[in-house]
Amino acid sequence: MSSLDTMFNQVGAMIAIPCTASGTNAIALSPNVNCPALSAYNELGGYRFVAVNTSTGLVTAQYNGLGFLPVYHGDGVTQAGTADLVIGQQYVFRFHQALNGGVGGFYFESPSQPVPTTPWYTPGGRLTSAPGVPVSFVSNAGATSVWYAPYLHPFVPIFNGNNVQMYQFASSLNDTVGLQLFMGSSASWPANSAFDVFVILSGGVPALATVQWTNLTTRALTLAVFAGFLTNSGTTLMRTNATTTPSVPANQATFLGSFVTGNAGSLTWIFPGNNIAGAFGISNYYNTVLFTGNVEDTQALYTYTAAVTRQAGAHSYNQISLLQTSSERAVTFENHTTNGCAGAVSAYMLTGMGANSTTSNAVNGIHQAESTVGASACIETSLFLTTTGFVTVSANELSDGTHANSFNINSTNTLSFKAWL
Amino acid sequence: MINNLQAFHAAIAAVAPIDGVSGDGKTIWFQESATEAEKAAAHAAAAAFVDSTPEGPVVTPPPLQELPRPKHITEA
């Protein structure tokens, strides 16, 4: 009978003995019923158990009351610590005499995990109106698609309902085009409307999807930080094409940015120039680029007497429109004008800028004549906006209601902007 | 391009209520109260306007004369 016991224990020494665990960081392992209760640790003998707590500090363990020894990761040096043991998961501690300076310790064998241990990071592409061009310096007056092109890298983090994974949104590593949202002038994206753009999983692969804003300055869908990036806060119907609006569970749509339509199903991306208004209908949330530009009024000088604010020279091109998906980034506008006061004491003129108004100014500069000779002078004004939504800033002017003051006397009045888009 | 924009503005404003004129003479901004007759008169005044020359009147310099040599200067 003694020989049978010996053989039983010898077999037990060669397997991972099923045990019951107790403790959080000091794990006491007791052999289960009908399992060998060995009286000494044996080299590479294992002890299998299910954690009853998640570890909160450095982990030690003992089997069958034989004495606590440190538990190490595979390198035999790094001791298991906080959260290395997760409640409800199964582990094996395997004894090795050489560990712990020869005193002995345990190797820590983790269970397989469905959760990838690779980290995730912010989306790597940029929304653009030009396929394959993440930072476009070419004007596009009627883009009927929005593209998400690789920029920093071709991956986006998406919560798939179980965990966050980085998904490759480009078809290959040398694909520069990325994802396309084809609108094709469809009324499903109404004219003069703003939309948020997300990347979701459609059939297991990344796809672009949109949610319309309430109006041009009010986002309809609340965004929520999830795993460190912005997502949809609740289950949301999102549009992936002109006829499809899948329901996307909370946090499973990764926010990328916004765009605003001009005509239905199309957007504008126009750089300002000589007598050309600027219009930037795309705003990225990640990987923004600082864009700049000038509207220069090269038309002839003119007189204006009315004490009524109007767009400079009554020219509709003296403006720059842009969308800001977040107020986190300030936008700067500057208006430089050269003007001549009429030859009358107290004749005056004002130039400045209006935000979404050509009949009132958000900022003014004044030039007033001090003698009957009159004089020319420059007026420079700056406007700083921290706004969310679509804004049009126009160069505006007004006169004193009496005198024929001259504006744009050098035909070089300039409206400028700087914006992270 | 109108050289004397103030005079041009005054000529138009004399016949019609305006807010301004453009320096190329192509645009007149009328006030809402302007009648069709006043607008027609304004366009007629614009067409008849005689602009000044950009440099002003031409001044002819007097002919050069040889100045008398100062007495304290002697030739070598």
Overview of the structural elements:
The complex is a heterodimer of chains A (421) and B (76). Chain A has one helix and 34 strands. With 421 residues, chain A is mainly beta. In chain A, the strands form nine sheets. In chain A, strands 9, 21, 22, 26, 27, 29, 30 and 32 form an eight-stranded mixed beta sheet that branches. Chain A has a seven-stranded mixed β-barrel with strand order 1-2-4-5-7-6-3. In chain A, strands 15-14-20-23 form a four-stranded antiparallel beta sheet, with no helix packed on it. The radius of gyration of chain A is 34 Å and the shape is elongated. By secondary structure, chain B is of the alpha+beta class. Helices cover 29% and strands 9% of the residues of chain B. Chain B is built from two helices and two strands, in the order H-E-E-H. Chain B has helices at 5-13, 36-48, and strands spanning 18-21, 28-30. In chain B, helix 1 runs antiparallel to helix 2. The radius of gyration of chain B is 25 Å and the shape is globular. The termini of chain B are far apart. Residues 55-61 of chain B have low confidence and may be disordered.
Overview features:
heterodimer; A: 421 residues; mainly beta; 8-stranded mixed β-sheet; 1 helix; 3% helix; 44% strand; elongated; B: 76 residues; alpha+beta; 2 strands; 29% helix
Q: Give the helix level of chain A as a range of percent.
A: under 10%
Please work out how many helical segments of chain B DSSP would assign.
2
N-to-C terminal Cα separation of chain A, in Å? 82 Å
Record the strand order, biggest sheet of chain B.
1-2
Largest sheet of chain A: 8 strands, mixed
Radius of gyration of chain A: 34 Å
Overall outline of chain A: elongated
Q: Give the largest interface pair and sizes.
A: A-B, 16 and 17 residues
Span between N and C termini of chain B?
A: 59 Å
Largest sheet of chain B: 2 strands, antiparallel
- Give Rg of chain B in angstroms: 25 Å
Q: Hey, roughly how much beta strand do the residues of chain B contain? A: 5-15%
Shape of chain B: globular
Number of helices of chain A: 1
Please trace the helix and strand order of chain B, writing H or E for each element. Answer: HEEH
| Helix/strand class of chain B | alpha+beta
| Assembly form of the protein | heterodimer
Secondary-structure-derived class of chain A:
mainly beta
Sequence stretches where pLDDT stays below 50 over 5 or more residues of chain A:
none
